[in-house]
Amino acid sequence: MMRYELLPHTADIAFRVRTDSLRGLYENAAFALEDILVDTSGARPAIQERITVTGSDPGELLIALLDELLFIFETRRLIFSRIQVETFSDTELAALAEGEEYDPSRHELRNVAKAVTWHNAAIIQRGGIWETTVVLDV
To answer: pLDDT tens digits, residue range 114-125?
Structure first.
C-alpha cells in the first residue's frame, strides 16, 4: 500500500492516506505533508524533535499534528524524514520526528502551504482499513 496519494484539486493540494492502523494513518499523513513540502529523501536524522498535540478526537489530533509540523517548518525551518508516533489516545498524540534544518542547496522545495484545512477532515475505518483525506491551503 502506498504511503499516500495526491488527489486532483482545483486550487489547493489534496492527498489521501490509507493504511491498516490508526498509528500508521498519523505517520503516513505526517510523511505526506513533509514530502509534499520538501524533498526529504536526503534529510539526515541530525535533529530529534518531540511533538505532542491534543484534540477532542482522532480527526482533531491529525489536523493538530499536521499543523504543528507545518508550523515547525515555517518558523524553525526543520524538515523531517521520519516521524514515529510513540503514544496516542483519543485526545493526545506524542511523536518523535527526526530530520534536519532545511537547506535549499540540498533539499528541493516542492510546495508552499499556508495551512492544513478542515475541508473533508475525517478519519474513516472500513473493513480494517483506516482512511483520511487532507487538503492543504497553498
So the answer is: 999 988 778 999
